[in-house]
Amino acid sequence: MNWISNYVRPKINSLFSRREMPENLWSKCPECGTMLFHRELRDNLNVCTSCEHHMAITPRDRFADLFDGGVYTEVAVPEPVPDPLHFRDQKRYPDRLKAAQKKTGEHEAMLVAEGEMGRTPVIAAAQDFTFMGGSMGMYVGNAIIAAVTRAVELRRPLILFSAAGGARMQEGILSLMQMPRTTVAVEMLREAGLPYIVVLTDPTTGGVTASYAMLGDVQIAEPGALICFAGPRVIEQTIREKLPEGFQSAEYLLEHGMLDRVTHRKAMRDELITITRLLLGLPPAVKGDLPAPTDVAALPPAQSPAEPAEPSAEPEQTA
Hints:
This protein is α/β, with parallel strands linked by helices and 319 residues long. The protein has 2 domains: 20-55, no CATH class; 57-318, 2-enoyl-CoA Hydratase, Chain A, domain 1 (Alpha-Beta Complex). The protein contains 12 helices and 9 strands.
């Protein structure tokens, strides 16, 4: 036995060999290229500490920051018919769904929850762009209708965070049908006299922008968010002209009257609390001494409580 070659040399090599760094410890900002430590980025709500670029954030992380103490209850969403068109391109549609579920740990592209925000009970829905581009399919339509139904039932405002690449092509016309379905659902909130606040995040495009994402009583966007129906590249290729700098960004839309506010993600919770209580006719919340939620229960009852069940039942039979 060669003692030096069999023991000493491997020991020395192990001491000086380069250790591999886990890939999930660092993230690169797509805007400025800065490498960000994962804990620092998470504590800053996925906002770059160097250039303030707002990166994608999961619905659960968003709700953890939105609700008091990060406590919320998920709202059940009816399951649609799986793979109704038996769609197949390079992969089968069910295989794409399974891959997205494994990647994100979520069942679908939208999460609906109820809880208190500044001691004000609210219903919230958020899209997950990492799940097949946050595409709007039958499940997303069912999720919005479930959120609206729950909001009308409990007499609570609805806050929706949009992030989508548009309709889900694997569901064809059934995906496009979610545009009128969700529009009717938003009208239910209006008839019940309940606030509907939309927060548009990067990106919000396609059929989502053409339906529920632009129907809010108040339209708020995160800085730098792309908000459009057709993207800038498609428009440039169609009209063969150079578009203005920052065209279809949140700041551009605010300047041209399409949005009410552009709010930094770290200030979003306080902004939503203020706007929600203002729309409900409640006194402003005071930090450290927030009012009890009992005053929200004093809202007048809905004019026709039996109505919420009808829109949610009809579209499910159509789908």
